[in-house]
Design goal:
Shape: globular
Oligomer: single chain
Length: about 425
């Protein structure tokens, strides 16, 4: 089987799924979820066709058009080589660099970065299928991997040690096995009309099925949040059989950039009864997520210092320097990486490995089918919504894909199938060649 192919097409499609009831996320109200799907098609020298796929939330932005107009022209005609992980990293990285520099006059961060990330994820899926190996094993190939702000840019920010031959993470010996990663479940949103007890019972029901780390979103109703968190702090440890451990077990509250400044954040946290938690035997929360706009590193540091709560930031962040500024201020206990927003696997994997090498617990934002491949066996915590066949009322993404990781006992095991190990539902995404 050949291990090189040339890209001949980049196709996009968009699908919309209405939500059963609106969700409040910070200052936003979400009534529907819109997703874009991408397929990168390549041909080998012997005439075979190989394709890779990706998907992401559009957040109501014209993502398909951005891919079509600003990224695809720099990708079509380029070669992907997947004889091993080193070759895949170099060839896909070269395409990534061409797309970044080709759109630099209007891009680099923001929506164009997301568009590059969508295509990059599909290219890695293609590379894995071309090599006949899962992406996680390709990423573990090669010499020590140093993290940097950008692929191909100097500045060693820490390199994890390689897996030893014959270990679960070793791919050179041909005995690689998928290793389960810790996982987090987005368990409940405090939607209108529900009491604190209602929301707590939903979270506790998930905990009883084996989830040690569960997330809820912030409600602007201070009294509801106070009562909800009091219930969970009292009852969740007995259900899970473990105390709250920062980054690994307990309750996460996602603020969704909902507070304007540190003063507003600390007033709410004080009303919730969770400030001053640093002196307790266990933290009040596993982490507090995205309290302010990610760029407000000074405000985040103040919230961190005054509340004693571990902070996590990263959802929708497209600029690696945002992470650097937060970390420099001591306001990044749990880095979160949105693999599409940060620019794809090429950009995300070095970041995850560098954080893990520095001893940080790392989490992902949505797209578990992709993030489960990042950073090695202990590299990342994989986020998902409830994946029952009936779906969930918060995010229908699990219904849009076929395959992906296996979730069990609060862990996610990456697939052994070539590529990313999932495909997009063709009934949702029409990615076939136009007739």
């Amino acid at each position: 089987m050949g291990t090189a192919a040339r890209v001949v097409a980049v196709r996009t499609a968009t699908t919309v799924v209405p939500l059963p009831q609106p969700l409040r996320l910070g200052a936003m109200t979400v009534e529907r979820r819109e997703y874009v799907g991408v397929r990168v098609v390549a041909e080998t020298d012997d005439g075979r066709t190989v394709a890779g796929e990706s998907y992401a939330l559009t957040r109501e932005a014209p993502m398909a058009e951005l891919v079509d107009r600003l990224v695809a022209p720099h990708v079509v005609g380029r070669e992907v080589v997947a004889s091993d992980g080193v070759a895949a990293r170099q060839s896909v990285g070269a395409v990534w660099d061409a797309a970044l520099r080709g759109s630099a006059i209007v891009g680099r961060v923001g929506l164009v970065r997301r568009a590059i990330g969508l295509v990059d994820v599909a290219l890695w899926d293609l590379a894995g299928r071309l090599a006949g190996r899962p992406v996680w094993s390709l990423l573990d190939d090669g010499p020590d991997l140093a993290g940097s702000a950008e692929p191909g840019v100097g500045g060693d920010r820490g390199a994890p040690s390689r897996a030893v031959a014959g270990s679960p993470g070793d791919v050179s010996s041909g005995t690689a096995a998928a290793v389960p990663r810790p996982a987090i479940l987005v368990a409940a949103y405090p939607t209108p009309g529900r009491t604190a007890r209602d929301v707590a019972d939903e979270v506790l029901a998930h905990a009883r099925t084996g989830w040690p780390l569960l997330k809820i979103s912030r409600s602007p109703d201070r009294a509801l949040m106070r009562d909800l968190l009091a219930i969970l702090r009292a009852e969740l440890p007995e259900v899970t059989g473990r105390p709250t451990v920062a980054g690994r077990s307990g309750v996460v509250v996602d603020v969704g950039f909902g507070w304007r400044d540190a003063d507003e954040a600390l007033a709410d946290l004080d009303a919730w009864g969770v400030t001053g938690a640093a002196g307790e035997s266990a933290p009040a929360l596993a982490w507090l997520e995205d309290p302010l706009l990610p760029e407000d590193a000074v405000g985040a540091a103040r919230v961190r210092d005054a509340s004693g709560l571990p902070l996590s930031v990263g959802d929708e962040v497209t600029d690696p320097e945002v992470f650097a500024r937060l970390e420099a201020r001591g306001a990044l206990d749990v880095p979160r990486v949105d693999v599409v927003a940060i620019g794809g696997i090429t950009a995300a994997d070095p970041l995850v490995r560098a954080w893990a090498a520095r001893g940080k617990v790392v989490s992902s934002h949505v797209y578990p089918e992709v993030s489960v491949h990042l950073g090695g066996a202990a590299g990342i915590g994989v986020e998902t919504f409830d994946r029952s066949p009936a779906g969930n009322p918060y995010d229908p993404a699990p219904l849009l894909v076929r395959g992906g990781p296996v979730f069990d006992g609060g862990h996610a095991t990456p697939p052994d199938a070539p590529g990313l190990g999932f495909t997009l539902d063709p009934d949702r995404f029409d990615l076939e060649e136009p007739s």
